[in-house]
Model the fold of this input.
Amino acid sequence: MRCDGNGEADLEPTDEQLAKVAGTGDRDAFTLLIKRYEAAIIALIRASISDPNAVDDIFQETVWQMWKGIGALREPGKLKFWLYQIARNRCRDYGRRLGRDVSIPSLHLEQLVNRFGPRAPVGRGKLDDIDDALAELPAVERDVVIAHYFRGQSVRVVSEKIGVPIGTVKRRLHVARRRMRDILDRGGRIE
Done:
C-alpha cells in the first residue's frame, strides 16, 4: 500500500490488473511486473543451470518472451505460474543447446522448508510460495541452498567452491532453512 500526498492510502495494483494493462502494450505496467518477480525468476534460473554467466542471458530471454506473450495471456489471474513456466522453458532450451537436461526437482523445494521432508502434500501454490521465499534469502544463503539442495553438492564441495569453512556452509544452510520457515509462516503459508 502506498500513500499519496494527502496521506490517503492507495492500493497497489494486483498482478492480474497489471497483466491486463501490460497486455495492451503498457510498458510501465510490464516493468512493475518484472520488478515484482525479478528476484524469484533469477533464483529459479540460478537453481536450474550451473553456468552463472548464462543467468543474465536466460533472464533477458525470459523477459522478452513474457513481453511477446503477455497480450495473449488468457488467464491473467495465473500470471505468476505463467512467468515461472516461461523461465523454466528458457532454462530447458538452454540445456538443450548444450545437450543437457535441465529441470528443477520440486521435491528439493519441499525439503528445503523442512529438512525431514514436507509437512503436508505440497501443491503448485505452495511451491510458488517456496520459490518466493527462496528469492527473499540473502544471496550468500541462497547460493549455498541452491548448490546443496538443487545441485546436490555436498557441504564439503560447497565449502571448497566458495572458499569458506565447512562450519560456515552448515550455518548458512541452517539459517536459510530457518529464514524460509519464518518467511512462509509470516505469510501464513505453512500448516
Q: What stands out?
A: Confidence is low (pLDDT under 50) at residues 105-124. The domain at 10-103 is CATH 1.10.1740.10 (Rna Polymerase Sigma Factor; Chain: A). Strands lie at 2-3, 9-10.
